[in-house]
């Protein structure tokens, strides 16, 4: 996927256009303080922006990502932070932590049940007793309703001398219990087009709840966004805070 390789140096600028990064950090800070979290594992940390902010607030985070290029940039930008290369479904930490986070729809790259089970099983291993798991997952319900969306421009951003236009469309390619979406992008960098395709799985909340229960997690909260608004079935995402049980 070119977003995580050829476009890695622009990744955060591209994503930030559709995010509220300060709200994400505030949500994590308040959640972690409420549960007395100190050590944090960020699975799918990208170029490390969450790691940098969390460390600046006094937490002890470690970032893990499967893209060598993304981590190369993270280490250059934030040399005082800790990063490791690892596949999200297979990563086992050297020591258990208080919280694991997996944001930006990274969970949606787990496109079959085995990958989901492996990921959650390792999250359970990676957490201390009663540790927290925070997941941001794209919701299946609106995708099933829309089914297909043509490629249109979703953002225009600039990083240094490079202007970047992001165009995105998607189509539902499998619509049974395993809902698979092909997301197609065309990035225009200073008038040069770059095409990218991501295959992702979207989930209904009851599916995720069952996966979590199977892997000994209890759901504490489900939100629609980082403002803490209650999850609604028709919303674009689910933000889940779960707790490891013994």
From TrEMBL:
Keyword Membrane appears in the UniProt entry: no
Pfam family, one: Methyltransf_25
CDD domains: AdoMet_MTases
Keyword Chloroplast among record annotations: no
Entry keyword set: Methyltransferase, Transferase
GO biological process: methylation
Superkingdom of the organism of origin: Bacteria
Alphabetized Gene3D superfamilies for the sequence: CAC2371-like domains, Vaccinia Virus protein VP39
Methyltransferase domain location: 40-131
Gene Ontology MF terms: methyltransferase activity
Protein name, per record: Class I SAM-dependent methyltransferase
């Amino acid at each position: 996927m070119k977003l995580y390789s050829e476009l890695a140096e622009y990744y955060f600028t591209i994503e930030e256009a559709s995010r509220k990064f300060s709200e994400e950090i505030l949500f994590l800070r308040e959640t972690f303080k409420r549960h007395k979290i100190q050590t944090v594992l960020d699975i799918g940390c990208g170029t490390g922006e969450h790691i940098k902010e969390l460390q600046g607030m006094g937490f002890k985070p470690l970032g893990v990502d499967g893209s060598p290029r993304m981590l190369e940039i993270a280490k250059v930008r934030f040399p005082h932070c800790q990063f490791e290369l690892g596949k999200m479904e297979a990563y086992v930490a050297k020591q258990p932590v208080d919280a694991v986070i997996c944001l930006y729809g990274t969970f949606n790259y787990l496109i079959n049940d085995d990958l989901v089970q492996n990921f959650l099983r390792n999250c359970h291993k990676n957490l201390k007793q009663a540790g927290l798991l925070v997941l941001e997952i794209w919701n299946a319900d609106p995708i099933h309703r829309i089914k297909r969306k043509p490629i249109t421009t979703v953002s225009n951003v600039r990083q240094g001398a490079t202007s970047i236009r992001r165009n995105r469309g998607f189509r539902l390619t499998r619509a049974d219990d395993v809902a698979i979406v092909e997301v197609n992008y065309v990035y225009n960098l200073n008038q040069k087009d770059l095409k990218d395709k991501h295959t992702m799985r979207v989930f209904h909340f009851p599916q995720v709840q069952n996966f979590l229960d199977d892997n000994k997690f209890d759901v504490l909260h489900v939100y629609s966004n980082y403002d803490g608004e209650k999850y609604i079935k028709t919303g674009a995402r689910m933000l889940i805070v779960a707790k490891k049980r013994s």
